[in-house]
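Two proteins were folded this term; both appear here.
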Amino acid sequence: MQQLSSPPPAPGPRLAHPLGGLSAPRLVVSALLLAMLLSCRFYEETIYTWLDTAWQWVNQVLPATTHLDKVAGSNLGALMERPHKAVSALLFAGSYVALSLGLLVALLPAGEGWRWGLRLYGGIGLVSAALLLAGHAAGLPLLTDLASRLLHGLLSLLPVMVLVPLLRWPGLRAPR
């Protein structure tokens, strides 16, 4: 007599990988970048003081660099709502955005971190610059204030906290 066997059970949904599908090196790099970003925010005034001092030293060694301060003027300091030199603010912002882009690249699948990060940071940067120029040209402080708020949002963990879950959530990604 032949035994009838039932078909094997259909595979159920797979359990999510405990590390979100990240390899151990990517996880370590992500943790280090996140710690650096948080440290930048905790020690922001100390970093600005160091950058201001370093820029003052550069101005003494290379007097031609004082023109950069005159070109930027006080508009950038007023925009960032901090009494720091424009070059220091630009260096801090550039470093923070670079660390954020690095974190996006480490946390997102191949190529998506750069693509989405550059779109987001570039788009918000361009909109902020356009609002700043329009506000300055038209004499509308409301546009300048809006540009300042956009830049403050850009220099936070908010873009990373929004992009990573959205782009890693499989249900939101289009099938390839």
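Next, the second protein.
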Amino acid sequence: MIRTSGAMIVLSVGAGGLVLVSAASAAPADAARFTPGAPGVGDPYFPDMGNGGYDVSHYDIALRYDPKTKGLAAVTTVTARATQNLSRFDLDLVGLKVSSVKVDGHKAEYKRTGRQELVITPRRGIHKNGRFTVTVAYGGVPQTSDDPELGTSGWVPTRDGGVMANQPIGAATVFPVNDHPTDKATYSYTLSAPKGITTLANGDLKGRVTKSGWTVSRWEMREPMASEVSMVAFGDFDVLTGRTGKGIPNLTATQRALGLKPEDAKQFFTMTGGIVEFEASLFGRYPFSSTGGIVFKAGEIDPLETQGRPIYNMTDEAGPIPSRGLIAHEQGHQWFGDLVSPKRWADIWLNEGFATYAEWLYAERFEDEPVQDSFDEAYGTPADDDLWEGKVADPGRGQIFDDLVYDRGAMAIHMLRKSIGERTFYRLLKEWPASHRYGNASTRDFIRFAEKLSGEDLKRWAATWLYSEGKPAL
């Protein structure tokens, strides 16, 4: 044996004489290098959220809610594909106690590190492009994520149950997840609760049975979904089902504790269907298999565009049901934010700017308020107001839910409309979400798309309305 330059060389005697064979080349093919997946996707705003080394295709989430303890007993199975040779990988999970982890049916080692990392080491490495399943059994009372800059997200208790409101990083309070918008997946839910408690989720209801005092419902979201817009709810709800004018299944639920009149619940159902149909006429075919909404009262959480079925917390909302403008905003997100999600959280103006503009378009069509008037009102904000601080296309972690991305985002869209003309702009409203259907896109992607569609050089528009601080001159 000769050691040279740190590499081991083996001398082998054969029929042809002495042969040099390096240990590396002699190693069996399966001794391939397996390395850990990254503990985060590297998003500058949330570097530890999400994980590297794999891509999730499906979550199967089984939750059993006990109103006596306010706790969950749960099993989640994650189906994924390795994007590298994996020696180990992480899932995001906050708080809840893990009792077992299996990879492809075999027990796997696991440990908890940091705030939310569940580090899993399978019995053997997983080859790149190999498909695998991870089954995690866990339970406990889920935590609410309270961020001093971003507010409340994740599991939010209500007087009769709880609601999952995950934007931006709350999903990990309820299930093990690759918690970043770039890893979309399909979902199925099996939700169990004592008889009398309604169970709700994204997607389509596939069945409900009651046995031995427990009701179990099964839901499926067949279109790819980002974890931040996944949703479940347990509580005492009145549920209405039917179809929109164009035949889209519509399910709305209103919490009985709100004391709504039947006509209020019916109005919410009807408004939701009508607004979805109006927006489909502008933005293209409705992208999911069903629509609807859930109205309830809980802590300090904002309404949220949970995929296919937005949630509306009425704590701070005037009136017994959400306003038409609010419904137009959250349903507008079904195209802008849900169908097409941001590549990075810095791109969130593509969600909120377009959803705010959807409100303006609705007000113009049905409330006799021209879009230009909405623009003028927002633009009339004094130049020294906080609204004009920061950059729309890079607002900073603590500003992703500020007026900066909502109102200035909508103003940027209106100025784009003026730049490219009416006909091209209305083409953009349909072709942009269609071009990135069920995927992700960045601000740069949007600018390139708009330039290609319009044939215009939009660098000046982008520099003025997206990448500059301060109030732009008109």
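The chain has four domains: 2-31, 34-235, 240-297+306-322, 341-465. The CA atoms of residues 252 and 472 lie 42 Å apart. These notes refer to the second protein only.
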